[in-house]
Specification:
The protein has 138 residues and is mostly helical. It has nine helices and no strands.
């Protein structure tokens, strides 16, 4: 079974060239989310939550790395694919306690507008969507 260190290595490599909107290394976001969740499993999922969605890494790569089935399921549920309806995506992940916990931590961090150099109309639109999601996930 893979560990937090394995997840950190994979995420750090996968996100190595990515930056946050404020110019900081992207890996800081999954690390922040990791620090907001409780269990070891949730921490691993938090570290990996954007790897499949935002990089070339695929679920089969994580499976080959030896992550447990519950980790794989949560990462899969957290991965929003092109064409996915947002509300259906949220409703599906809400059924998995691990995915739900990580998504709430992810949303809280994404809703922190103090991280943005400026708040645009698009950011405000995204915030409304995130508020709906937080309310739905409870």
């Amino acid at each position: 079974m893979s560990t937090i260190q394995n997840a950190l290595d994979i995420a750090n490599n996968a996100h190595r060239d990515q930056k946050l909107k404020n110019g900081q290394p992207y890996i800081l976001h999954p690390l922040h989310v990791m620090n907001q969740v409780s269990s070891i499993e949730a921490k691993i999922v938090a570290i990996l939550h954007d790897v499949v969605e935002d990089t070339e890494t695929e679920l089969v790569d994580l499976e080959a790395a030896g992550f447990a089935p519950e980790i794989m399921r949560a990462v899969d549920l957290l991965t929003r694919r092109d064409g996915d309806d947002y509300k259906e995506y949220v409703k599906a992940l809400a059924k998995d306690p691990l995915a739900r916990e990580v998504k709430l931590a992810d949303l809280r961090h994404n809703m922190d507008v103090t991280r943005l150099p400026e708040v645009t109309d698009l950011d405000l639109q995204r915030l409304r969507k995130y508020h709906w999601c937080v309310n739905y996930l409870g």
